């Protein structure tokens, strides 16, 4: 029999991931601090819960997909958290992006009440969640991962054990550095070309066909030059993730000058009231500085 699943956190990513679990035939119990977020899942057959503890009591596996380290800790260890509803053989999977130290703390505390734990943040954005092709970075015991691997396979295509508790969050931080710098590099290229009078669609076409091509460019490039910054993730979350990377690097005495610059640009977006846009909106800061819009009327495929 398939295990019963609890899902906590039904935002942009969480809702899609929960829907994929329903499509895969899993029975779900769901909770979100925003009551309205629960309704679409209930309409698809999920059972509503009144707290994270209630989710844990009703489930064999609990998945959390929340906003930050503080929220993840509250979900897991709060007075009405998973720990309050813990039972024998429960597995908790935190798929949020949070600090490695938080992941280790959660796993350590849940282990005391017999709960298996994984930190398993994801990459792939809204499209990856929608198509169930997320890359999932796992920290924790291999035997726990093997136990829940079919559950993760309902949401992701690439599932990689990165090491012990916290390792998944370390790799997620590395991922966010690469994504952020890819977006900043693409933004700089488009703004420079636009200022010089070259159609951004032409720049994108050339870059996409050569050594500069990236997955970020393929997915976000056409949207950037069309001025479409509807969030697949958000500036606020990207800024938070870069902050985690820089905090971790500081503890390890690792210089991250590129990540620090990207963090400042994303901080500027937050200051400008653009925190709810897609992270690709980092181009708008450079457009403001250069006094040019890197947008085009030419179809990107031209």
Features:
single chain, 302 residues, alpha/beta, Rossmann fold, N-(1-d-carboxylethyl)-l-norvaline Dehydrogenase, domain 2, six-stranded parallel β-sheet, three-stranded mixed β-sheet, elongated
| CATH class designation of the largest domain | Alpha Beta
Topology-level CATH name of the largest domain? Rossmann fold
Largest sheet: 6 strands, parallel
Question: Uncertain segments of ≥5 residues (pLDDT<50)?
Answer: none
Characterization of the model:
The protein is α/β, with parallel strands linked by helices and 302 residues long. It folds into two domains: 5-164, 3-Layer(aba) Sandwich (Rossmann fold); 170-290, N-(1-d-carboxylethyl)-l-norvaline Dehydrogenase, domain 2 (Orthogonal Bundle). The strands form two sheets. A six-stranded parallel sheet has the order 3-2-1-4-5-6, with helices on both faces. A three-stranded mixed sheet has the order 7-8-9. The termini are far apart. The mean pLDDT is 95. It has helices spanning 12-23, 35-43, 52-57, 69-77, 100-111, 125-130, 142-153, 167-195, 200-208, 215-225, 235-252, 257-271, 282-290, and strands at 5-8, 28-31, 47-48, 61-64, 91-94, 116-119, 122-123, 134-139, 156-163.
